Give the backbone structure.
Amino acid sequence: MKNYLLLLSILLLVFSCQDYEAEPTPIPQSASLEATDIDQFINKHLSKGEIFDWNVAPTEMIHSALLLSDEILAVGYTIGDRQDLSSVIGVGDKLSSDWLKKRDEIVSIALENEQKVRGNKELSAEEILPFGLDDEIPTLALHVTAVETVELLKNMDDIRYVEPMGYEMKQELQKSSSGCSGSPDYNINPNDYSITPSYNAKIPWNFDLHSIPQAWSYSTGDNIGICIIDSGVSDSQNNMGSQFASGNSPSRSIRKYSTHYSGSWWWKSLDSPHDQCGHGTSMAGLAGAPWSNDGNALGVAYRSNLVTVRAVEDVIISSSNEKNGVKDALKLAGNRSDVKVVSMSIGNVISSGTVKDGIYYAYNRGKLLLAAAGTSTSFTNWAGVIFPASMSECVAVTGVKAQSSYQRCNTCHSGSKVDFTIQMQRSGDSDRNSLGLATSSDQPKYISGSSCATATTAGIAALVWATNPNMARSQVVDRMKQASDLYPNRSSSYGWGNINALAAVQGTSY
């Protein structure tokens, strides 16, 4: 009996030792750099006229930026040794099994290291995937705290970029001077609009400078879809709601979506498509507001269809939620056969691999992507064309003053990446700009900057495309080039210059 008990005790001891697995010891993580150090590093590159790319940052800086923000790491991956996927992303409907296998492998590697460093072997893949998994674009957003994980991923051959997705420079937190404001202007100068015949709508004064009303005799944008990626549209503005197909704008549609999440990585919820800023409402109005009879401002392509996507909170693409939102919005636009033109009056002086991948996706699906060259904040008024307008896949647009010689508007950016310009500011009065919709009311508001110019150009592109919906994107752009007043000589600051919409829809030179 004693031998039996002794044997039982030994067996219990052996099995208990085999089953026992000590919990890993958490490894303390802290930022090795302060925000001022990181901002100084970024500004050093911006001062050279560069768009800042996190690929030039060392591991410890990326890790510090992670811990100083929301701890979400953007990771772009590939298979094989191909790093440039600009002509690949979006070509197929879904990622193939090879790509999905690589994606899952990267998640597994990151998870295993995070379990070890955090001292939590129960940590699940779902807990480090704040936006879930993307089956169409080879990009990941991972909740990462360990410098070891950052370094491990950064040094892998099949990783294209590793970026602190939510890091915002201190200056970034300032909204653009022409960003979030939805209130109507009740002191609009009567010389800044004309009243349309038949219907009581206001034509913004600058439309005549681009022969837009004359172009309406040939095209009104019928059946062309414009996607506005911005802060959404207001549910209180009936011209973007119940009155969208009113007056001289019958038989058309507006579709409203949101790809923007609110909240931190452990708790996120998808926002409504309703504009909380005012910027998106104005941009949608400039591109395609109806020719109504309520006295409001009408848009360039007043018979086009609109798809509006709330992807950002304001004009700066800065937070993780916004970068993921813009990427998903570009996927949405790319997957809609009814959308031909995409207008983005948003941007940043810091690039984002996540947004880049979204740009590639929509571009490779034939969309004409228009992006604002930049509307200045107090810390970017010296910068050139901002991201993503700086990308070759985007047509960059800026605003200029209404005068014979070219001069950018007070808050507009210029540079070699600019393709087209729109006159949207009175030469002698920076407060008198183009007109767009307010978040509510039938009274419009002044709207300025390259944002305004971009949405106006989106409307012109729709007018051109409606003359022949079978045209390729390149043909539409060529028509706009040839109809611009600097063509065939491209300016180093203003591209092809001001577009003549009448000449563009007729397919003639300016």
User: Anything to note?
Assistant: Residues 97-118 form the longest helix (22 residues). The CA atoms of residues 483 and 504 lie 5 Å apart. Residues 190-506 form a domain with the Rossmann fold fold (CATH 3.40.50.200).
